[in-house]
Sequence to fold (192 residues):
Amino acid sequence: MKTFSRSWLVAPLAALLTSVALAAPPPGLLVLPEFDALTKKATESVNISLDPALLGLAAGFLDSSDPQDASAKQLITGLKGIYVRSYTFDADFAYPAAQVDAVRAQLAPPAWQRLVQVNSSKDHTHVDIYVCADHGVAQGLAIIASEPRQFTIVNIVGAIDLAKLHQLEGKFGIPKISVPDSGDGGKDDKGK
Fold:
């Protein structure tokens, strides 16, 4: 009987494990529901998905001689993706709140930490901003803003300099997010 060396098994197994590790989603990437049906119901919709290759292509459209564009171009260098879903409707709560809540449910510790939470029961406005940090480095940012006739989800994936993040507002479909006053003098839900 011929004996086989186990080395024939090790090489394919190592290749398989490497491909699985390479296929693992990067930290900070959210699984966004398919909101395709909402496009027909919405009066306005934005659906942007920029992976690393498309980010590089989009960066080519920024004007390096414009200081704001140059800063944004530098900021996206470490990014692995920008994903934006935003819908506006003629009627209140015409969107599937359960799907928006399913995205919020992904933003759990220890991977995600909440930076900002504003809830206004008067206006039915909710804004949540979370950061995904790995060894003290921001690897993802998520913004979920909902109000009766509109919701927006922004997921930025990759190494993010939070101090410079505002430079991306208004670019690549990232809206300018104004955090509404909750009427309690800027206190969060714990009175701080």
